[in-house]
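Example record used in the benchmark description.
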Amino acid sequence: MKDNFSQQAKLYASFRPHYPPALYDFLFKQVSNFDMALDCATGNGQVATVMASKFKAVYATDISEKQLAQAPALSNVIYKIEAAEQTAFPDTFFDLVAVAQAIHWFDFDKFYAEVKRILKAGGLFVVIGYGLISINAEIDKWIAHYYWNVVGPYWDKERRYIDEAYTTIPFPFTAISSPKLFIEYSWNKEQFIGYLHTWSSLQHYIKANNKSPLTDELLIELDEVWKDDEILPVRFPLFVRVGR
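Model output (structure tokens):
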């Protein structure tokens, strides 16, 4: 699995979107036993910490020690540096296995074999992801240009699974229909720019060109459509695949 996020782990913890309560309400209704849960590629523990409010114990794994260092310490969350495709967990151990905004980095065959090994009979498997941010018509034009034309060539090839809303990933489970959901915030321009700095494509661009893709020209163009003191609603489309 690629590690694209250790370098900006603190930014990731500060600016990456959190998933809405409606998502967890839906997921928890599909679970009958709340003993053990696993959050694969947990990053800074966003999903794991919410799971901890329901499950007796939550394991949260990631290959990035720097990401895990940003995760909150909870008595019933156990963090481990471990790849999702090869774990040390016993067979039929978990009631729920989740992976959020990360499955596109995995070796699908190896990961799914591991999920089927460690998930209890009837246990729930959850894939969560979110797509390109949307704000309003004018700013969305700026976002589209930046996303596709400026940093577009610097996305890893796996990014296409996000662009395709995870509809094209293999999913060898009995699917459960999920509701249409969104992540919604009210952000100022600085928060939006902070979020852009978490993109792996920005880091790849800097590595290749020794400069930021967020040029003065681009930021001036953003200033023209987003005032400094303006707080705007932002929305991310959420996509969820759930199965047993």
